[in-house]
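ok posting inputs for the zinc ion job
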Amino acid sequence: MRDQANRDSVSKRLEIDRLVVAKQVHGSDVVLIDTAPREPKVCDAMIADKADLPLTILTADCVPILLFDPKTRSIGVAHAGWRGSAAMIAVKTVRAMTKRFGAKPDDLIAGIGPSICDGCYHVGDEVITTWGKLDKEFRPALKSRRGAESKTRLQRRQKTSKEYFLHLQLANRLMLRSVGVNEKNIETISFCTYETTSLFSYRRDSGCGRFASVIALV
Ligand SMILES: [Zn+2]
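and the output
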């Protein structure tokens, strides 16, 4: 979303007064939202257990993660690009909900929203090196293939050398599972933002807007 007018239009349509939007910085800080902040908090994840606090994540290729615990009636959101994912923001958000609200990971319902897919998210040395330092269980999210074996135009550009692609949604699903979220409670919307022209994609159209993922207790 480009401006306040867009946000207000979303707020009106959802019949919620004001979206709680963070100033996202590709970090991994989780902030408790108790009352609607006047200024956006600098963070990439928020948690709350009060009604009428529509926690909102803005993305264009990064992964939006929504969490809900029906038992403690608490919610959480996270913005996970490669940096946030490598910093285990999904795990930190679940742990914050446990610590603050007593939410049990096994009770959580998780939503993983649209992001760039592993066919389109070609990554370079910094990502490869960082990912290599993570626990083994998360390594499957970083995939290598030879350009010639690849199915998309982007991947075929270099036909001989080994290319690396990061599966951000898989990475975050593995991380949610690692902290005790039940696989059957994780729903993924697997649209690729890069390939779906109705969604914003930073890689496709740099300087583009962002789309909002919102969760609220009512
Ligand atoms: Zn794709």
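notes: The pocket of zinc ion is lined by residues 117, 119-120, 192, 194-195 (CB under 6 Å). Residues 4-116+180-215 form a domain with the CNF1/YfiH-like putative cysteine hydrolases fold (CATH 3.60.140.10).
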